[in-house]
Specification:
Elements: H1 2-30, H2 40-50, E1 57-61, E2 68-70, E3 75-79, H3 80-84, H4 88-106, H5 109-137, H6 141-178, H7 187-223
Parallel strand pairs: 1-3
Antiparallel strand pairs: 2-3
Helix pairs in contact: 1-7, 2-4, 4-6, 4-7, 5-6, 6-7
Length: 224
């Protein structure tokens, strides 16, 4: 009972703490202007053009920290604050999202795998808890394990996503440095923003792993 409670708390707390960390880091560097006074749009355009991706558009999207690269439409979408902002946070986030565009262009295997997994994971995880519930109601152990395996698809997706995000941040760092986008005092701040973002994905991996462990623990306790 206590172990189950600890797992539930950890599953909830890890993503929440990671989100809090990126929120305070983002807000800190959102208030600090980058020394080159480049907007997120200008940073993104420089990175894309330097990598031969002149055909990729950069557009705004609503919300905060909703920035992403759309591989289907070949568009980098930046939130208003990032698109128009000239902060260190704008610089880091824009360069990171362009890192995904470069991954897509270069045929980065894990990014391709993540795109393939999206519909499979969405369907599998949506069905998983219904299958587990039916398994418990009718005491069909194999059905419960199938449900847990489908839940594990979420963990697989997180495990694939983590290196994709880390690689995008690595590419962002290289582009920021080689293109001279950041001034001497900007680089450490940009790294802090990118590191905080990576922590949210690491927390997602741990939370998903703990969720699978919790479900297995429940099954084993029922068997005993």
């Amino acid at each position: 009972m206590w172990l189950n409670l600890i797992l539930i708390i950890a599953i909830i707390a890890l993503p929440a703490l990671a989100q809090f960390y990126i929120s305070i880091t983002y807000k800190k560097y959102k208030e600090i202007k980058n020394s080159k006074q480049l907007s997120g749009f200008e940073v993104a355009r420089k990175v894309l053009d330097a990598n031969g991706l002149n055909d990729i558009d950069i557009v705004t999207t609503s919300g905060e920290l909703t920035d992403h690269y759309d591989p289907r439409r070949k568009v980098v979408r930046l939130s208003d604050d990032i698109f128009n902002g000239t902060s260190i946070a704008s610089l880091a986030v824009a360069a990171h999202e362009c890192g995904h565009a470069v991954q897509d262009d270069r045929g980065y295997v894990l990014m391709r795998l993540r795109s393939i997994l999206v519909p499979v994971v969405n369907i599998g995880t949506s069905l998983s808890y219904y299958i587990i519930l039916i398994g418990f109601i009718f005491q069909i152990l194999n059905l419960i394990y199938i449900g847990i395996a489908l839940t594990g698809l979420g963990l697989l997706f997180q495990l694939v996503t983590l290196p994709v995000e880390i690689d995008a941040s690595r590419r962002a760092g290289v582009n920021i440095r080689e293109l001279g986008i950041a001034g001497p005092g900007d680089s450490s701040g940009a790294r802090s923003v990118l590191t905080a973002a990576a922590m949210t994905y690491l927390a997602g991996v741990l939370a998903s792993a703990l969720q699978v462990a919790r479900l297995l623990l429940i099954v084993m306790n029922r068997r005993d």
